[in-house]
């Protein structure tokens, strides 16, 4: 039996396309990438004919049909890169194309906001009104700062609260009194505590530092220094001792010119686990290693604790046990493709390792029978739960419909939690029950967890951030003062006290 066509009564009419919009009972508009450019097409169900509506030389996406011959689309008429000082044609604008006059599209937004990005048009009152989204901020000069706030969010999990900060890679200290994160430019490390909000470490340029994490016992912050999402580039792990004092010292812990990242200490703060491409060959496989948490490889070469032709990554040590949680594609099927549209094909699942005997169990599977990403696992402060970011609930927004950010790689999905047995690791094999915390159409990523509630008036960082703004550099303020877009980090704040 063909379940798709018989039970669900569906029929595939277009392959590798998206954003469908009905022009009539028999006409469908959609967008699709052909070659290097996106285009909007018209499909007639009665004849099976497909016609390209927009010119091949431009990018055109997210169609909103007015009728069977007219459609509103978002266009980019000239490609750009993030370092460009953009001209009008390089901004995303809304236009209306008419099949009868294909060379004379109606310009909607270039006359109102020529240097602004406009997204996802929609049609009202039979085409009398065209609506759209626009990324909006104050007009900026390059290098200006943008005030941004911490915000409480609605949680879909009764035991977990949510808090959002405009930044990336949030990291709470073990006692919950300090919050570190990097700005969206991956240039500086920020700290919020009872002494205020301030930069505690800064690099010379963008894409230079990310993924801060606290030593579980001492006032030491670890960071990854180097370009992100580039396995072929050198990436080192540094310690920032006495970080709360603002001394801005740093100590190199890794050696050997490899790609090293995602450090985490054991509960007494003496050992550090991290992932590295060393011994990974030309395919840059990644495995987990262990070294001294204060002097790093000055105390001897890092000890390898996993070994295989796979990617083990996103490792974190339990707050009170010799368990390490990490994400890996080690169970990827043998016939899985090596790349998916230039990126990894997924199959990332979450595993627990006993740091003493090195035994491993898989806790969360990777999308069952299809590729998926279950990444960035983090223990709850009591060690009884794990929070992850995962695309197990699918991604309902086409990435092309969203603002393109400097560090966008692929949609991560939503935040989920899973409860684990804290006493018997073997009982955590392939846990079936999940709790979904967020409902995003595209991405919530890199969560962290603290014992303080966002409603707790005695939480030091909470008192601070609810009353003050901060101004990390805005990396997406265009050089000519156009519009910009900001992304946020996500933090899980449990209402239960551990």
Could you walk me through the main structural features you see in this protein, from its secondary elements to its overall organization?
It is a single chain. The chain has 498 residues and is mainly β. It has two domains: 20-133, TolB, C-terminal domain (Neuraminidase); 151-494, TolB, C-terminal domain (Neuraminidase). The protein has two helices and 33 strands. The chain has helices at 3-7, 460-467; strands at residues 18-22, 27-34, 37-44, 49-52, 59-65, 70-76, 93-98, 101-107, 118-124, 129-134, 150-153, 160-165, 168-172, 179-182, 188-193, 196-202, 209-214, 220-225, 236-241, 251-252, 260-265, 271-276, 287-292, 303-304, 312-317, 323-328, 349-354, 360-364, 374-379, 385-390, 414-419, 435-436, 489-494. It has a four-stranded antiparallel β-sheet with strand order 1-2-3-4, with no helix packed on it. A hairpin with a 6-residue loop joins strand 11 and strand 12 (160-165). The longest helix is centred in the C-terminal third of the chain and has 8 residues, at 460-467. Mean pLDDT is 83; it is low at 1-7, 137-144, 457-489 and 493-498.
Q: SS-based structural class? A: mainly beta
Distance between the termini: 51 Å
Instruction: Using the coordinates shown, work out and report the CATH topology of the largest domain.
Output: Neuraminidase
**What's the CATH C level of the largest domain?**
Mainly Beta
Our count of helices gives 2
Shape: elongated
Please state how the strands of the largest beta sheet are arranged side by side.
Answer: 1-2-3-4
> Radius of gyration, rounded?
24 Å
Let me know the average pLDDT.
Answer: 83
CATH arch. level architecture of the largest domain: 6 Propeller
Protein name: Dipeptidylpeptidase IV N-terminal domain-containing protein
InterPro entries: 6-blade_b-propeller_TolB-like, WD40
Pfam family, one: PD40
């Amino acid at each position: 039996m063909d379940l798709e066509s018989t039970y669900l009564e569906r029929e595939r009419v277009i392959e590798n396309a998206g954003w469908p919009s009905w022009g009539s009972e028999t006409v469908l508009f959609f967008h699709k990438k052909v070659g290097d450019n996106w285009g909007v097409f018209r499909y007639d169900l009665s004849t099976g004919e497909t016609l390209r509506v927009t010119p091949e030389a431009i990018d055109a996406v997210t169609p909103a049909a007015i009728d069977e011959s007219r459609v509103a689309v978002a266009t980019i008429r000239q490609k750009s890169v993030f370092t460009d000082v953009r001209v009008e044609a390089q901004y995303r604008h809304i236009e209306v194309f008419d099949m009868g006059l294909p060379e004379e599209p109606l310009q909607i937004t270039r006359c109102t906001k020529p240097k602004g990005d406009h997204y996802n048009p929609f049609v009202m009152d039979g085409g009398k009104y065209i609506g759209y989204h626009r990324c909006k901020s104050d007009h900026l000069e390059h290098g200006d700062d943008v005030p941004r706030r911490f915000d409480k969010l609605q949680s879909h999990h009764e035991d977990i609260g949510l808090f959002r900060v405009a930044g990336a890679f949030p990291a709470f200290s073990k006692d919950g009194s300090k919050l570190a994160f990097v700005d969206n430019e991956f240039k500086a490390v920020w700290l919020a505590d009872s002494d205020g909000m301030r930069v505690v470490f800064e690099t010379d340029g963008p894409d230079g530092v990310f993924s801060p994490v606290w030593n579980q016992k001492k006032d030491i912050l670890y960071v990854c220094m180097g370009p992100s999402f580039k396995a072929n580039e050198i990436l080192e792990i540094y310690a920032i001792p006495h970080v709360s004092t603002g001394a801005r010292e740093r100590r190199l812990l890794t050696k050997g010119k490899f790609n090293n990242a995602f450090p985490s200490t054991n509960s007494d703060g003496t050992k550090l686990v991290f992932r590295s491409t060393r011994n990974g060959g030309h395919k840059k496989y990644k495995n987990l290693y262990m070294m001294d948490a204060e002097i790093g490889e000055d105390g001897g070469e890092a000890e390898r604790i996993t070994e295989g032709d796979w990617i083990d990554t996103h490792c974190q040590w339990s707050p009170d046990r010799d368990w390490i949680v990490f994400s890996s594609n080690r169970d990827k099927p043998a016939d899985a493709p090596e790349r998916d549209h230039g990126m990894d094909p997924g199959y990332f699942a979450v595993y627990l390792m006993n740091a003493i005997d090195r035994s491993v169990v898989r806790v969360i599977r990777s999308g069952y029978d299809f590729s998926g990403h279950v990444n960035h696992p983090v223990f709850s402060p009591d060690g009884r739960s794990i929070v992850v970011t995962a695309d197990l609930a699918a991604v309902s927004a086409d990435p092309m419909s969203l603002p393109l950010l400097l560090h966008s790689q692929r949609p991560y999905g939503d935040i989920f939690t899973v409860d684990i047995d804290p006493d018997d690791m073997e009982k955590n094999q392939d846990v079936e029950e999940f709790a979904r915390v967020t409902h995003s159409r595209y991405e919530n990523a890199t969560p962290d967890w603290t014992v303080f509630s966002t409603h707790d008036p005695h939480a030091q960082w909470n008192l601070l951030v609810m009353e003050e703004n901060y101004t990390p550099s805005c990396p997406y303020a265009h050089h000519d003062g156009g519009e910009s877009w900001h992304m946020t980090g996500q933090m899980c704040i449990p209402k239960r006290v551990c």
